[in-house]
């Protein structure tokens, strides 16, 4: 069977990674969460004091980029690869609202994007990959055989993310999550380098009114038609 590249882009909290993970499992493909890579770089920058609520020393982060080693290591129990920052498993800690509040600023930096895009292209070289993010169909794999662009209303997305974080035991308010979702979309869509836009050949899927199962079946069918 032919192996293809599947690019899943879209706004924050549209359920891209849940879908991408399930699709990869079903097809026996690798799954790469590129948002996790931007989040891990953000965690690194926060720990070094390069970014906080008052300051952002972009030049210091750029200088230190060679000190950042990112790896994906498969966790058989969970059934997907987790992200490691300099040999530390940071899969959980990078999902905090604090990291979410800084990540889109970090993602505006061309030097950061260049480093991560190179690694993403290398990880997907052999095809047989489902990659989710914001610029996969436009920049990372412009020749991907299947490109999906996921959307849903901001309220629905914030509600889903709020419940997810709450279930993980995080002490948060809905308003904070809503503000973060809207602000991230604004920054991601308006940045100069690789803004979040739908690739001209991507298929838009608005999942506001779709169940997870309906959405999965729809996209699996699209993938199977290409294989
Ligand atoms: O997908 P996730 O919400 O974890 O992504 C976190 C952030 O990382 C996004 O809001 C965006 O700023 C950045 N990102 C990006 N390009 C990607 C993936 C994520 O700029 N390919």
Features:
227 residues, alpha/beta, 5-stranded parallel sheet, 3-stranded antiparallel sheet, 8 strands, 48% helix, binds cytidine-5'-monophosphate, ATP binding, Cytidylate kinase
Describe the overall structure.
Keywords: ATP-binding, Cytoplasm, Kinase, Nucleotide-binding, Transferase. It holds the Pfam family Cytidylate_kin. With 227 residues, this protein is of the alpha/beta class. The chain has a single domain, classed as P-loop containing nucleotide triphosphate hydrolases (Rossmann fold, 3-Layer(aba) Sandwich), CATH 3.40.50.300. It is built from nine helices and eight strands. A hairpin with a 4-residue loop joins strand 3 and strand 4 (80-85). Helix 2 (34-47) packs across helix 4 (97-106) and helix 4 (97-106) packs parallel to helix 8. The longest helix is centred in the C-terminal third of the chain and has 17 residues, at 174-190. It is globular and about 50 Å long. Bound molecules: cytidine-5'-monophosphate. The site of cytidine-5'-monophosphate (C5P) has 13 residues, from helix 2, helix 4 and helix 8.
